[in-house]
């Protein structure tokens, strides 16, 4: 049976959840609640029930699951009120502005005996899934360095995302997704250090982009870059592994893989450049290296809600766990601190 479902916040992402639920095989939309009357009116015009208060939503005993899609600074209060009111809760990312806030949410969920998880929907992005599957298959060995980038050219949005008090900034907005993805790829590694440099080209108050380097005890490196002032873009993913390289140019494109077959080469033809020649940087030929494309993996983002509904019924473990979101939050806290100090800092678990 479908679960009765409601959404708090009927802005950009709240509308996405509403539209998604209307196509879902596990959810039945009961309604929305938004603090802004105009948003409630918009919902009613579409034939969607708009609760007049959060308490009215909480008192609707039919509603089993609620997704919270409101600005980042108000997640804590709304999530806890819903959990205490007996609802299972999904919170939008970033779940909280500090580890302390997350601890309160998790403790409240445990006390209420309700499911609480976070909408880390970019785990269903095919670019990330392609990198994960190459690592899982071991076809080019263990990753030594993964670079994950998102580049835009419109600056940080001019809404609450540009303001510190609402939890704005790109580390919290996009960083949370890209760090989450890489922590799943490097799930068996221990973090040694974190270095982060923020950019403030279009916004002085919050970061409008950043360069984040996470170094693991093994020596492997996860690098995340988000830019909102990039009029030409670098590849979405670049992965250097023990036996090859993988590259994804754009998030909807196939992965190009170069796999080293033989390390030694007999005759290397030097490349002639305008001012000299080089053997070191000459490309390999097909005798020692295979180059191929991988098909785009299959992905169904409805699997997120399917998992949540099964987890509520005790039939599956929730995919996005408290430990995973806590780790990502801790990395972001280290990133802010590294940026503030202007240096690399040791990671404290
Ligand atoms: P938005 O500004 O478009 O919408 C926020 C809505 O929340 C507004 O309609 C506002 O009136 C309402 N609101 C504010 N405070 C409220 C409260 N206390 N109670 C009820 N309603 C309230 O913002 P958005 O882009 O939809 O972002 C909302 C959340 O979703 C943020 O946490 C953001 O990081 C997240 N988000 C996630 C993704 C993703 O891909 N997972 C994408 C975009 C945004």
Query: Which consecutive residue ranges, at least 5 long each, have pLDDT under 50?
Result: none
Report helical residue fraction. Answer: 25-40%
**Percent of sequence in beta strands:** 25-35%
Q: By helix and strand content, what is the structural category?
A: alpha/beta
Bound molecules: nicotinamide-adenine-dinucleotide
Largest sheet: 9 strands, mixed
What is the number of helical segments per DSSP (H or I, 4+ residues)?
9
Q: Please tell me the CATH architecture of the largest domain by its name.
A: 2-Layer Sandwich
CATH topology of the largest domain: Dihydrodipicolinate Reductase, domain 2
Description:
The protein has 349 residues and is an alpha/beta fold. The chain has 2 domains: 3-119, Rossmann fold (3-Layer(aba) Sandwich); 125-300 and 330-346, Dihydrodipicolinate Reductase, domain 2 (2-Layer Sandwich), CATH 3.30.360.10. Helices cover 31% and strands 26% of the residues. The chain has helices spanning 12-22, 37-45, 54-59, 75-84, 99-112, 126-137, 170-185, 302-312, 322-341, and strands at residues 3-8, 27-33, 65-68, 88-92, 116-119, 143-151, 191-199, 209-216, 221-227, 237-241, 244-248, 255-260, 271-273, 276-278, 289-294, 345-346. Helix 4 (75-84) runs parallel beside helix 5 (99-112). The longest helix has 20 residues, at 322-341. The two termini are 41 Å apart. Nicotinamide-adenine-dinucleotide binds at residues 8-14, 33-36, 39, 69-72, 74, 78, 92-93, 119, 121, 159-160, 173.
């Amino acid at each position: 049976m479908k679960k009765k479902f409601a959404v708090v916040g009927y802005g950009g992402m709240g509308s996405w959840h509403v539209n998604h639920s209307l196509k879902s095989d596990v959810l039945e939309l009961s309604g929305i609640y938004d603090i802004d009357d105009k948003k409630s009116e918009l919902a009613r015009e579409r034939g969607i029930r708009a609760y007049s208060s959060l308490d009215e939503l909480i008192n609707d005993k039919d509603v089993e699951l609620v997704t919270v899609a409101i600005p980042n600074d108000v997640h804590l209060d709304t999530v806890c009120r819903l959990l205490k009111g007996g609802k299972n809760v999904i919170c939008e990312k970033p779940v909280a502005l500090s580890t302390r806030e997350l601890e309160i949410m998790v403790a409240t969920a445990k006390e209420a005996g309700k499911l609480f998880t976070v909408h880390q929907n970019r785990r269903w992005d095919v670019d990330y899934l392609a990198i994960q599957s190459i690592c899982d298959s071991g076809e080019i060995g263990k990753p030594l360095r993964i670079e994950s980038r998102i580049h835009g050219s419109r600056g940080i949005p001019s809404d609450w995302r540009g303001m510190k008090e609402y939890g704005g900034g790109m580390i919290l907005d996009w960083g949370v997704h890209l760090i989450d993805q890489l922590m799943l790829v490097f799930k068996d590694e221990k973090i040694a250090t974190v270095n982060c440099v923020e950019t403030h080209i279009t916004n002085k108050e919050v970061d409008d982009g950043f360069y984040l380097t996470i170094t693991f005890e093994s020596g492997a490196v996860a690098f995340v870059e988000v830019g909102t002032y990039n009029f030409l873009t670098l590849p979405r993913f670049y992965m250097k592994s023990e036996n090859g390289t993988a590259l994804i140019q754009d998030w909807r494109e196939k992965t190009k893989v170069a796999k080293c077959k033989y390390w030694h080469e007999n005759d290397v033809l030097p490349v002639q450049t305008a001012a000299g020649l080089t053997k070191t940087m000459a490309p390999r030929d097909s005798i020692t290296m295979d180059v191929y494309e991988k098909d785009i993996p299959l992905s169904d983002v409805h699997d997120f809600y399917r998992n949540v509904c099964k987890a509520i019924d005790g039939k599956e473990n929730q995919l996005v766990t408290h430990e995973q979101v806590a780790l990502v939050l801790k990395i972001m806290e280290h990133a802010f601190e590294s940026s503030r100090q202007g240096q690399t800092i040791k990671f404290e678990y």
